[in-house]
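Weekend entry, working from home. Most of the wet-lab plans are on hold until the incubator is repaired, so I used the time to fold the two sequences that have been sitting in the queue since the last round of cloning. Logging both here for the record. First:
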Amino acid sequence: MKTGLVLEGGALRTIYSSGVCDGLLAGGVMTDYVVGVSAGIAYGVSYISGQSGRNLEIVTRFARDRRYMGLGNLLDPKNRSYFGLDFTYRQIPETLIPFDYEAFAAFPGQVEAVVTELASGKARYCTVPRDKEGSSLVLQATCALPLMFPSYCIEGVECVDGGVADSIPYQRAFEQGCDRVIVVLTRPRDYVKKADRSLPLVLHKYRKWPEFCRTMADRARCYNACREELFELERQGRVLVIAPEDTHGVSRTERNVEKLRLLWADGYRQAADRMDEIRMFVSGN
């Protein structure tokens, strides 16, 4: 039996998923396949490397650090992202809070990140390379929120954040042969997505890519339909969904460290409280 883990994005709200993943590590649960979107997989690689607490340390140390995120980074022509790219994707994992590349490389399963192709507006599922440079490029691309990041060339195709085309890629997990899939959301179960207020700006900026603009304009409807289908699969027993009861007002660019700690703790507690259920689910019982 092949098990999968699906990690929704949400920038710093994804610290909830890190709490869940740290709880899974504490319970000895490691899936065969991991796919994530944006910060979901950028944080999720620390689950694969077995580094419990690493993401919590990153956000609590650097959420208020302008090198990590801030408007100055976005206005810097050498950076062009709200997040400091060299600081976030090189200095932190290589020096400040080292990522265990050897443990990541030794993981025997599959690891994929979702990006959205600008030309087609469709999702592309990229294997996350096990080397530093390759993994950094893919993880930046999957996190490339429209308006907040540049686009990235992946396998010859210009791409941005995977959440535009496939925010919760549980169907990809089934396509890759998973029998049981754990899905970690970053919004409460009763959440209903509305059209983003920045949509007019996004449509103007990316007007050269009409298919992408169509996908972006239809994103809220597709997202809500995706969640409805997910909850139906949960009722059928095919997926196990873990979702926050309350996000405590944590935003995508949250700087309040105590709120981030609280959201991480909620995720950890939910995983711990449901550990018997999770183990039975992944074992097929």
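Second, folded right after the first finished:
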Amino acid sequence: MSLHYLPAIVLIITVLVSLISLSLKRHHGIAYLICGGGLLLTMLSLFVQIGKPGTSSELFVFDAITPFLSLILLIVVSMIWVQLYQWLESLDERKEEYYLLMLLATLGSLIMVASNHFTSFFLGLELMSLSFVGLVAYSGREFKGQEAGVKYLILSAVASALMLMGMAILYLQYGSLSFNDLSMQGASGTLPPWVTVTGIIFILGGMFFKLSLVPCHLWVADLFEGAPLATSALLATLSKLAAFVVLWRIFNLGGWHTHEVIVDIVAAVAIASMLVGNFLGLLQNNLLRLLAYSSIAHFGYLLIILLLAASPTTAFLTSTFSTEAVIFYLVAYLFTLVGVFSVLMQMPQIKTQQDLTGLFWHKPTLAITLSLLMLSLAGIPLTIGFMGKFYLVLTAVNHEMWWLLSALVLGSIIGLYYYLRVIMMMIKAPDGESDFSGLTMTTNGQMLNYLIIFLVIGFGTFPAAFSQLIETLSRG
């Protein structure tokens, strides 16, 4: 058996150990350490695979990119895990099951990232989605949490049904569920072209829901607001990273860019997501709803990458530049967003922008960290977010995608306003209603804040080493 399966095996063993420990004795500290130990061992098993020769099977592909993306995914989950003990202690709920569900969701996302077949993709998707149902509704005593859990369960089931219908149509046409066979010329030909396009649209509809893209975005703000804070962080990062990697792989291997209707649909969804997400973000006072609509816009930006193969290109960029662009932007956005949620988990009583009034004068470290993260989301120079957006703009210019580039620039200008509004609230002179006396900085929280500042500023100011690593892996 290939060592590429070792990370998944380690996670499965961690889940089993957690179950055995839970059945023998409930202890929050033990569950926390078992989860952290499993995540650490999984990251080590992925780290040693980076740069090694890849392999593939019927269900999975382990190229140079797969272990790197899986490692990024595990790092994001680990950054959330660091905050979990203190945060769960503040909840009047059973703590131990949360780690179990998080591990299962992580396992499902790892399966999705490595999938090369609709069977493995769907198994990973359902393992992740069903775990998230429990994570979303974990605070069972809160009405908003119950409502969010029911919404996610129903809408996720509808999205999965759409994708299953699309998979069935493509199987009827191609006689295979492998991603590599979706573009083969020797299709059975029993279906007219419009039926195949309909199958692709069904799959895209389900994936657009998972990525909360327009018009499948109406659920995301309610879910972010109603779910526990750590769950919202996982939904915004873990779930969307796995879903986008699969969509990116299918689009490239399946040759979906050859269908003009599909290209037009994806372009329309990208433009609508950039503009609608940012316009709705302008109207939000609740921080979680603001982040929800911001995520719509950011993944609208990323859809530009899917359309590159369908656009003319000039000669001043390498053939692997689009791969470098999508990986850099994903890493930049995920690190920034998980940093924002990490800061918010240290301030559980902060719900709205008004609640941040005067934070800088009471907790400067938290305020400076959150300000840098907002600047990164806005794409301000010297942050990792700027470099990610620079890659996207350069790619769009190279492929002469002027309409999409115009929407990206306009959306970025709109987004800049509400990101800066958050910063202005923090540096505003404190009023009599501001109360930050309940905020306590733990050692884990302080170390994580310093790490976040280093990543956001370090990779934004000196991106060369990270860019070269991505370029090497893209050519691997």
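Plan for Monday: verify the second prediction. The radius of gyration is 22 Å.
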